[in-house]
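step: validate -> pass
step: tokenize input -> pass
step: predict -> running
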Amino acid sequence: MYYWNNELWRLAYLVVGLGLLGWVFGSLGWGVAAGLALFVLIHLRHLRELYQWLNSDPSQEPPAGSGVWGDLFDRLYRYQKVQRLTQQRLRDVIHRIQESAEAMRDSVVMLDNQGNMDWWNSAAERMLGLQARHDRGQPVTNLLRDPRFIDYFNARDYREPVVLPSPLRDDLMLQFQITLYGDNERLVMVRDITRLHRLEQMRRDFVANVSHELRTPLTVLTGYLETYTEHADQLPPRWQRGLGQMQDQTRRMQNLVEDLLLLSRLETDHQTERSVPVAVPPLLGSVRDDAAALAGGGCRVRIETAESRDLLGVEAELRSAVSNLAFNAVRYTPEDSTITLRWRPWQDGAALEVEDDGDGIDPVHLPRLTERFYRVDKGRSAATGGTGLGLAIVKHVLLRHDARLEIESRPGEGALFRCVFPAARLIRRPLGETGSDTEVTYRTADSGQ
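step: predict -> pass
step: emit ->
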């Protein structure tokens, strides 16, 4: 405001002064016009100096100016200086980030909002074969053409990574994890997990081989124990008790071996069996009968079906998953409990649920329930004959059916295990076949629970 007032006074001085001079010479109008023209010429000169300064090198000292132009030159110079310092700090930060990324063993690839590759570190060149001269600005799916990566990239669900072989070497296993940031931009982190993959493969092979080798001796032991049991009346009473315990433990070992072999097959084999439409209500009815027999009348088992579509999958694997959930509910719920097997719509797909009103599970255990041999109560699991592999089998069966397992439970409020299947796994039931809600209660005088 101060400089603006000065400019007004300068204009007034020029107009009045040259106007008086023109009045003296008998031409007041020409004097006023000359004052205005001189004022405009002064501003045009300063404007020209500003243009030349900005066009040449704004980092140099600004031109000298008076009045509002001097203040304008100073302000622009200070602004340019602050901007240069800010840009230098940003360049330093970017340089440090790039140096840090270059020091990483993992690959880092930055993508723009169109999925084109902007920048990557040297590890990406070694793992993925990227070349700055040819690949910069290219879509990442032009380089990584594996259908599994393309599906993962387009699905935009990056909660879990995807494991794929390197495009350069089939024996190099890489883990791809994408993170969204900024304006729909993506950061691709690639980690070499070849050693971990080999160790995991060795573990699976070891478990599968040992389990397979144990089947023969266990079968022999079981046969001889059955023979001895048939003639138990000829043995001393103390031996009879030992035979019963040996049979129980042998049966438990056989169940463990069968579960290990099934889990190994689910982990290593690809989906070799053809998926077919599976009518879920009959499957639940069969599982209900088995669960009721296991309960021995100690709990009530009921079925609810609100979904009319069939499930596309492998019936034997689906039966195994639902059976494991139902049998766990029978084993770990008290007598007079209610177990519900439910088939109903859920979000865009459908859900198979096994719910009980038993003691429930502390939430601290929920993230680890699907781990092999993890048990909430080890003593109780051993007493009920569980192997600790049931939920691991369920998880792998669901993975093979593009589904997921959700667990909801709190102490004293029962437990709900929900198998969520996508809409792509559902198929309309042929006309004339309908499902109905069913509720069957099994009670006997003696409880086997």
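step: describe -> The chain has four domains: 2-94, 104-192, 196-268, 276-439.
step: cleanup -> pass
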